[in-house]
Amino acid sequence: MENKELTLTEEWDKTFPKSNKVNHKKITFHNRYGITLVADLYEPKNTEGKLPAITICGPFGAVKEQSSGLYAQTMAEYGFLTIAFDPSFTGESGGLPRYVASPDINTEDFSAAVDFLSVQDNVDPERIGILGICGWGGMAINAAAIDTRIKATVASTMYDMTRVNAKGYFDAMDADARYEQRKALNAQRTEDYKNGSYQLGGGVVDPLPEDAPFYVKDYYDYYKTERGYHKRSLNSNGGWNTTSALSFMNMPILSYSDEIRSAVLIIHGEKAHSRYFSEDAFKNLKGDNKELLIIPGAVHTDLYDHMDVIPFDKLERFFHENLK
């Protein structure tokens, strides 16, 4: 099980400024499927001994130079060793074909990050948490259901990607619509095989139509502007392979979330179009160590990068209380 050699960017190309309170370096690790993942590691300066650690990923279609890196760097300032990783098949991470997503492999990516953290000399393997943003919020909860090494989980502005692919936004897709969607996606499989390449589904629409729904405008404001654009982000550019949606339509990820015994904190914006994903996911959680926090007035992407909206003090307390 050896990490595949990848060419890593050495320049600071994040969408946020570099902190002088933490040390930063690139690292690699591999998952159970032999895919090498690339991450940014952030370590608080002037620390000794074994630290609590957090691994972070998301949003869905983003890269570690965007929101997940901002969360990781900030939580390192609070005293945690953190890594923000690119999921399999995306960003600087390995895996072929490119730009494909998988409910199984992407859940595994979180556990692979826990593998890496568990064997670091400066990490306490009994104090490891995870944090998923947007679509990786759902993946994080799914990982917590299978990986008992994870002691605390945060899902921020989460999507259940299997639900939105199978049922559409706001559960508007019925069985007939799903059948037509399957027909179209399977026809595209034939075309992809014939062409020897994969059609991209397209990132965030650009130019932005005047009649676009608010949530599309919300995504545009992050991914297509200086605020959040990144050259390796799928949402900022050509998007995922179109046929990635197939496995998400057929494999719900939160089937065993009611069996999670470790602590879970779900955070969402009051005015986010996606709020229902978090509220429904929270209803399935059991135990007195689960919490839903709704941020007044916040929309979906406010929790990507707005430092005055993301409740970092709450995240610090939650992880310190549950990684001890």
Strand order of the largest sheet: 1-2-4-3-5-6-7-8
Major sheet description: 8 strands, mixed
> What is the first-to-last residue Cα distance?
31 Å
Global Rg: 19 Å
Shape: globular
Would you give an account of this structure?
- The chain has a domain at 22-160 and 253-322: Rossmann fold (3-Layer(aba) Sandwich).
- Helix 2 packs across helix 3 (135-146).
- Strand 7 (263-269), helix 8 (275-284) and strand 8 (290-295) form a beta-alpha-beta unit.
- It has helices at residues 67-77, 103-118, 135-146, 161-167, 175-195, 214-223, 245-250, 275-284, 302-305, 312-322, and strands at 22-30, 36-44, 51-57, 81-85, 123-133, 152-156, 263-269, 290-295.
- The protein is built from ten helices and eight strands.
- It has an eight-stranded mixed β-sheet, with helices on both faces.
- The chain is an alpha/beta fold.
- The longest helix is centred in the middle third of the chain and has 21 residues, at 175-195.
What labels would you give this structure?
single chain; 324 residues; alpha/beta; Rossmann fold; eight-stranded mixed beta sheet; 8 strands; globular
Précis, in short:
This protein is α/β, with parallel strands linked by helices.
Set down the secondary structure blueprint.
Elements: E1 22-30, E2 36-44, E3 51-57, H1 67-77, E4 81-85, H2 103-118, E5 123-133, H3 135-146, E6 152-156, H4 161-167, H5 175-195, H6 214-223, H7 245-250, E7 263-269, H8 275-284, E8 290-295, H9 302-305, H10 312-322
Parallel strand pairs: 3-4, 3-5, 5-6, 6-7, 7-8
Antiparallel strand pairs: 1-2, 2-4
Helix pairs in contact: 2-3
